[in-house]
Write a structure and sequence with these properties.
Keywords: Membrane, Transmembrane, Transmembrane helix. The protein has a domain of about 80 residues. Helix content is about 55%, strand content about 0%. It has 3 helices and no strands. Helix 1 packs antiparallel against helix 2 and helix 1 packs parallel to helix 3. The N and C termini lie far apart (about 160 Å). About 15% of the residues have low confidence.
């Protein structure tokens, strides 16, 4: 009788492999990029510039129209020493300014005040009779 396990091949014990622990990778937090708001102010500025140019042209032409008319109505009748051409050209140059509205208002105030002055002078000299008056 064979002894128990005498001729049997010995089974080799399998070595258990140690499982390597996987290192967990740390996830990097992504920084959120702030979205820049598109500025619409530039477009508005362009529109304003166009409007200002149109207004300036309008004021320039009104001054061109008003000043010679004022002068042609005999406004400088009392100021014979005052050169008409110089006055009209001076007003035209002023109207070229960017702030045409303020210049226009100043010119208008000057004209009105001098007109009132001449009317007072006329009334003082000749009374209320305006038959000789050219304007």
């Amino acid at each position: 009788m064979w002894r128990r396990g005498e001729n049997r091949k010995k089974k080799k014990k399998k070595k258990k492999k140690k499982k390597k622990k996987k290192k967990k990778k740390k996830k990097k937090k992504k920084k959120k990029k702030k979205k820049k708001k598109k500025k619409k102010k530039k477009k508005k500025k362009k529109k304003k510039k166009k409007k200002e140019e149109e207004e300036e042209e309008g004021y320039f032409f009104t001054c061109l129209y008003l000043v010679p008319n004022f002068l042609s109505y005999g406004f400088c009748f009392f100021f014979s020493n005052f050169p008409r051409d110089y006055f009209s050209s001076y007003c035209m140059v002023l109207c070229y300014c960017r702030k045409a509205l303020t210049v226009y208002l100043v010119v208008a105030k000057v004209l009105v005040s001098s007109y009132n002055f001449t009317m007072r002078l006329w009334e003082a000299m000749f009374g209320t009779d305006k038959s000789l008056c050219t304007f």
